[in-house]
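Lab manual, section 2.4: Encoding a predicted structure.

Procedure: take the sequence of the chain (600 residues), apply the prediction step described in section 2.3, and record the output as C-alpha cells. A sample record is shown.
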Amino acid sequence: MGTAFSIDTPVKVAHYGISSVISLVDDSLIEEMRKHYCALRGEVYTPITKYDHDYRARRITEYLNLVDRIVAEKFEQVRNSCFEIGSEITKYFEMISNNSPIKQLYQQMIKIQDPILKRQLQDRLRSMMRPGDINVNIMTKLDRDNLDAKKNPLPAEFSDALSALRGYAESTLNSAIVFSAGINRRLYSYVEKFDDFYADAAGFIKKRIILKVSDYRSSIIQGRFFAKKGLWISEYRVESGLNCGGHAFASDGYLMGPILEEFKQKKTQLMEDLHAVYTKACAAINRKTFDKPHSVEITAQGGIGTAKENQFLLDYYKLDSTGWATPFLLVPEATNVDEPTLKKLVDAGEKDLYLSEVSPLGVPFNNLRDNFSDLEKDRRADAGRPGSACPKGHLVSNTEFTDKPICTASRQYQKLKIDQLKTMELSPQAFKAIYDKVITKACICNDLGEAALINNNVVKNGQRFSAVCPGPNMAYFSKVATLKEMVDHIYGRINLLNNTYRPHMFIKELKLYVDYFIKEVQKSTLEPTAKQIEYLNEFRKNMFDGIQYYKQLFSKKLEETSQVHENALAELQEYKTKLEDFIAKHTHIFTDLQKVVFSA
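Recorded output:
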C-alpha cells in the first residue's frame, strides 16, 4: 500500500486483532513518524540522523520497537476493558467473523444470565484474545547501494534492502517480513545471519518469512533457496498480477484462479519437498531438525470485493486467509490518506483508475488520474522545469548519462534526456512522443509518503503533493467507512459497494490481462524479436487456459447467484472472442491460430 498509507496502521488496528504490513522503504518517513509518536506519548526522542552510523537500520529498529510497545499497551487496555455496549473489548469481538468459534463463544456469553458463569466465559474469552501482527515489507527490487559521508562506497550490508532487513531483524517484533517483487539473492542470503528467522528447539520461529508470489513455480524456486539455508517459508502470498494496488507484475498471462488451483492441488507436495531440503540444510549447520514440516499458509489478495468472493477463496481453494488493501484507503481509522485525496478516491470511477507508466522502476503502476503528485509534476513540466529534486533517491537505477545511478523521475535525468532529444533531429511528433514518456515519471518514493505527514501535521517548508496507488477495485467503493463498517462488509454483514456494475474478481482480472496483452502486442507489432514472439504466444496460451478453467468453474463450482454465473459466462465468451479476433490480425506473431473451443 505504498509507504504512508499503512506506516502506522498497526497502532490503529492491531489491538483489535487485525494484522497489517508496514513498508520499510522510506526510513526518512519512518523517522518522522517515530518523532511524532514519541511527542504524542511524552517519550524522549533522540534523532537518528543521516550522519549517524547505520542510521537506516537503526531508524527502522527504533520505530518498530516503539510500535510494538504501543500495540502491546493498547491491546492490554482493550483486553482489560469491560464487556459492555460501546466498549473496546466489545468492539474487538463484534468485528470477528460470525463463523469463528471465538465469536460463537462470545455470542453465547452475551446470552448467559448467571453472573458467575458469565464471568468465567469472559475470562476465557480474554485468554483467547490476540493482537494483530505488526508485519513489514521489503520490495526486493529497491536495493540501492549507499555511500558514506565522504562519498565512498559502503559495504553491501548497508544497501537499502539489507539495512531494512537488519532493522527488522534487530527489533523486538514477533511477526513476519514480506518479500515482494521477485528474487534478490543478496538480500535472501543475508537473512541467514539473524537467529530470529530460524526455528528454535520447540519449532517456534520468532520472525517468519512471507513470500509474495505470482505463481506456484516461483514458490518452489524461492522456497528451495531459503530451505537450502535452513530457513522455512511460513506463508506463500499469491497476489493478482494486475488486479492489485501499487506496482503490477503481470504473470505471463497466468490468471489467479488457475494459480490458486495449482497451490490447492500441490500444497502437500510443496511442503514435503521443501521439508526434505530444509532438514538436510538444518543438519548441515547443526540446527535442530524436525520430523514434520512447520506450518505453511497459502493466502491470496488482489481485487477481492465481496464476502462471497472472500469466502469462496477460503472454502474452495482451502486458503488460510485472504488480504484486503485498496478498500481500506477509504477507512481513516486504519490508513493515512489526506482529505483532498480521500475525496478523489470517493469520486473515482473505472476510468479514473488506470495502469500507468509513472514509476521510475519501469514497472506498470496502478494510479489515480489527476492525483496531486501528478498534477504538480505536470505543473513543473509546463513551467519548463520537468522532474523532481529527488529528495530521497530510493528508486535510483539509471546510468545512461552518469556513473552514479540517478532516478528517471529526477530533474537531473529529465534535463539530460531532453537535451539529448533536442540533438537528434526528430520530427515534432516523434520528439513529443518520447518527451511525454520522459516527463511522465513521478517521484513516488517521496510522494507516496506524504499523506502520513500531511495527516499528522508534520511541518515542512512549502506544499506537499501526495501520490496514491489504489487498485481497480476502488471504482466500486464510494463511501468513507469506519473500521467496523469495512470489517462488516468483508464478512457480509453490510454492503459498502456502490451502484457501479462490478464483475466477479476473476472476470475483472481477466479483462485487465486482455487489455494488457493487447497493448504488449501493439508494442511489438512492427519487428518482433524471437523472444517477444515466444513470450506473447505463452501469454496467449495461458489466458486461453484460464478462460477454459473459468468456464468450468462458473458452470459448476462457484457458489454465487444465477445472475453472477450468467454474467460471468457471457463475459468469458466476450473476452475469448475479443482475443481470437485480435490474434487473427497478427499472424506474424502468433504461430498456432487454431480456435480454442470450450469443452463441456
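Check your result against the sample. Strands lie at 20-23, 134-139, 175-180, 207-213, 233-239, 297-301, 321-323, 353-356, 365-368.
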